[in-house]
Design a protein that fits this description.
The protein is built from four helices and no strands. With about 100 residues, it is mainly α.
Length: about 100
Protein backbone atom coordinates (compact mmCIF):
# COMPACT_ATOMS: atom_id res chain seq x y z
CA UNK A 1 0.00 0.00 0.00
CA UNK A 2 2.78 2.36 0.67
CA UNK A 3 3.94 2.13 -2.92
CA UNK A 4 0.44 2.85 -4.28
CA UNK A 5 0.01 5.92 -2.07
CA UNK A 6 3.41 7.32 -3.01
CA UNK A 7 2.74 6.52 -6.69
CA UNK A 8 -0.65 8.30 -6.56
CA UNK A 9 0.87 11.35 -4.85
CA UNK A 10 3.67 11.54 -7.45
CA UNK A 11 1.20 11.11 -10.33
CA UNK A 12 -1.20 13.71 -8.92
CA UNK A 13 1.64 16.18 -8.36
CA UNK A 14 2.99 15.55 -11.86
CA UNK A 15 -0.46 16.03 -13.40
CA UNK A 16 -0.94 19.21 -11.37
CA UNK A 17 2.37 20.64 -12.59
CA UNK A 18 1.58 19.73 -16.20
CA UNK A 19 -1.91 21.26 -15.97
CA UNK A 20 -0.51 24.40 -14.31
CA UNK A 21 2.01 24.98 -17.08
CA UNK A 22 -0.55 24.18 -19.83
CA UNK A 23 -2.98 26.70 -18.33
CA UNK A 24 -0.19 29.27 -17.98
CA UNK A 25 0.88 28.96 -21.63
CA UNK A 26 -2.71 28.94 -22.94
CA UNK A 27 -3.47 32.08 -20.95
CA UNK A 28 -0.38 33.70 -22.44
CA UNK A 29 -1.53 32.73 -25.94
CA UNK A 30 -5.01 34.13 -25.29
CA UNK A 31 -3.59 37.44 -24.07
CA UNK A 32 -1.70 38.01 -27.32
CA UNK A 33 -3.31 39.93 -30.16
CA UNK A 34 -4.65 38.12 -33.20
CA UNK A 35 -3.53 38.95 -36.75
CA UNK A 36 -6.70 40.98 -37.38
CA UNK A 37 -6.14 43.03 -34.24
CA UNK A 38 -2.51 43.50 -35.18
CA UNK A 39 -3.44 44.77 -38.66
CA UNK A 40 -6.02 47.12 -37.15
CA UNK A 41 -3.43 48.58 -34.79
CA UNK A 42 -0.96 49.02 -37.67
CA UNK A 43 -3.59 50.94 -39.66
CA UNK A 44 -4.29 53.18 -36.67
CA UNK A 45 -0.58 53.91 -36.30
CA UNK A 46 -0.25 54.71 -40.02
CA UNK A 47 -3.20 57.11 -39.87
CA UNK A 48 -2.01 58.73 -36.64
CA UNK A 49 0.30 60.98 -38.67
CA UNK A 50 -2.73 62.59 -40.26
CA UNK A 51 -4.33 63.43 -36.92
CA UNK A 52 -1.38 64.37 -34.75
CA UNK A 53 1.64 66.62 -35.18
CA UNK A 54 5.19 65.45 -34.75
CA UNK A 55 7.48 66.90 -32.10
CA UNK A 56 9.33 69.05 -34.63
CA UNK A 57 6.04 70.48 -35.93
CA UNK A 58 4.94 71.08 -32.36
CA UNK A 59 8.18 72.92 -31.57
CA UNK A 60 7.76 75.08 -34.68
CA UNK A 61 4.22 75.93 -33.62
CA UNK A 62 5.41 76.85 -30.13
CA UNK A 63 8.05 79.18 -31.60
CA UNK A 64 5.51 80.89 -33.84
CA UNK A 65 3.11 81.28 -30.91
CA UNK A 66 5.90 82.88 -28.86
CA UNK A 67 6.57 85.32 -31.72
CA UNK A 68 2.89 86.19 -31.90
CA UNK A 69 2.77 86.72 -28.13
CA UNK A 70 5.75 89.07 -28.24
CA UNK A 71 4.14 91.00 -31.12
CA UNK A 72 0.91 91.28 -29.17
CA UNK A 73 2.79 92.55 -26.12
CA UNK A 74 4.61 95.09 -28.32
CA UNK A 75 1.31 96.27 -29.78
CA UNK A 76 -0.29 96.56 -26.36
CA UNK A 77 2.58 98.75 -25.14
CA UNK A 78 3.15 100.91 -28.22
CA UNK A 79 -0.24 101.54 -29.77
CA UNK A 80 -3.06 103.87 -28.89
CA UNK A 81 -6.34 102.44 -27.74
CA UNK A 82 -9.51 103.60 -29.44
CA UNK A 83 -10.83 105.37 -26.30
CA UNK A 84 -7.55 107.26 -25.91
CA UNK A 85 -7.58 108.16 -29.61
CA UNK A 86 -11.15 109.49 -29.44
CA UNK A 87 -10.37 111.47 -26.28
CA UNK A 88 -7.27 112.99 -27.90
CA UNK A 89 -9.07 113.81 -31.13
CA UNK A 90 -11.93 115.44 -29.23
CA UNK A 91 -9.48 117.59 -27.30
CA UNK A 92 -7.71 118.50 -30.54
CA UNK A 93 -11.00 119.42 -32.23
CA UNK A 94 -12.01 121.58 -29.28
CA UNK A 95 -8.65 123.40 -29.46
CA UNK A 96 -9.09 123.96 -33.20
CA UNK A 97 -12.59 125.30 -32.58
CA UNK A 98 -11.20 127.64 -29.91
CA UNK A 99 -8.58 128.90 -32.40
CA UNK A 100 -11.23 129.52 -35.07
CA UNK A 101 -13.31 131.59 -32.66
CA UNK A 102 -10.44 133.91 -31.89
Amino acid sequence: MDFEIIFNIVMTTGMGVIVFFLKYFFDKLNSRASRAELNEIKEKIEHADEKYASKTELNELKKSIEKIETNIDFLKENTVRSADFIRTMTRLESKIDDLKRE
